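[Solved] Which block belongs to which protein?

Original post:
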Amino acid sequence: MRMIEKRAIAFDIGNKRIGVAISDPFNEYAMPCETYVRTRNFDLDVTAIANLAKERGVGVIVCGLPFNFDGSESIQTLKTREFVEALRQKTDLPIEWEDERFTTMQARETQIMGGIKREDRKKTIDSIAASYILESYLARRKNQKRKEVEVMSNEKMEEYEYDEERIIELEADDGTVEKLYHIATIEYKGGMYCCFQKAEPESEEEEDEVVIFALQGEGDDAVLMPLEDEQLLDEVFAEFCHQYEDFEDSDEAMELDGGND
């Protein structure tokens, strides 16, 4: 399988630690990763972070930019800008800024709700904060794309069929390649499932068919697995229809036909 769009990685840059988060293979959600403990060597830390992004094979780096609650800049804002400017010299990847106000607060709330003891919170709070930074970036990017589509003229809308970045290619045992368009990643009973439609349907039936895979593993080890359990497949498809109805008419959603081939 070849993913057309590369993942995004986010860093929550602090004086002592740098939290790391990475997106799923389809840039739908963010996953907390490790926490990098800084040394007293500024250049060594910058190089380590640049190498981490390179090892993950991402397409963009997102860095949280800390502001005061009123939106003004602080000493920490300047320190973060200095670190990121040095990072730009170590990598060819594009670097995006994302407002990180309240992310640490959100991360701490998540830890409390998860029952993590106070003495253990330092181990994960930075990576959780980084995941909120990345979630904010992914949501903002989706909104931008949605607005771009909304302002397109009727003529352009007729020409607009698929966002090429959401297309994957699957190679069958006989060597044939089929293109699938990723339409959603949903959660059901603790599992993650990716829903697709054929990018180049050959019939009206194929235009409405939904192909569902289970997303197993995390980070770079995540893979798509076919659903062999017919009952589970039906349940996941029903959940997809339920979520789809939030955005489209219910009649249109229920006309879709689920599958895992």
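(Second protein starts here: sequence line, then its structure tokens.)
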Amino acid sequence: MEDSNYIMPRIGDQAPDFKATTTIGELTLSEYNKDHWVILFSHPADFTPVCTTEMTGFALEKDFFAQHNTKLLGLSIDSIHSHIAWVNAVHEKTGVLFEFPIIADLDMKISKLYGMLQPGESETAAVRAVFIIDPKGKVRLLMYYPLNVGRNMDEIKRALIALQTSDDNKVACPLDWRPGDKVIVPAPKTIEALTERKASDLEMVDWYLAKKSL
């Protein structure tokens, strides 16, 4: 029987709201999320090597995320004092400052709410989860990595741009899509639309698979 403590929100679900203690003070997700995309991501523990590389990666991309109307929100099952000490240590050693908020989830409520605790991997450390949440508060994408494999920042950025491009232009993005590549136009749903499609200047592989440049 599935343990309800470890059920994660699914794509299309409203992101569960919460209030949390973070490195920038008290924060409520729905308020933080208002009019912005949010990337909520968990890491297993402070003062660990892989997590340090990941958090540094997010911090170094702050301009990219700001340009794409996206806020970052980290989380681990550590105290706020541990978070602050870690932020300070990384800043002193590398010059990189984690300016985005990091949730102190000591009671594991948020980790359980988002399925970040996966018993087969660990009962006390959150796996490397990534949730991309749109400005309407809906979960749009999930990524999960084990404790010993770091995330791919390039893919997180690519996926975010693809979601925003798809929303803005009512299109889909094909395999390995990058900004500037052609996008896929939705397939026709009527005979009339099919006739129009055949007469169009779209790049057609077949009637159901047509591409265009934006």
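Accepted answer:
You had them paired correctly. Confirming on the second one: The helical segments are 29-33, 49-60, 62-67, 80-94, 109-113, 153-169, 191-198.
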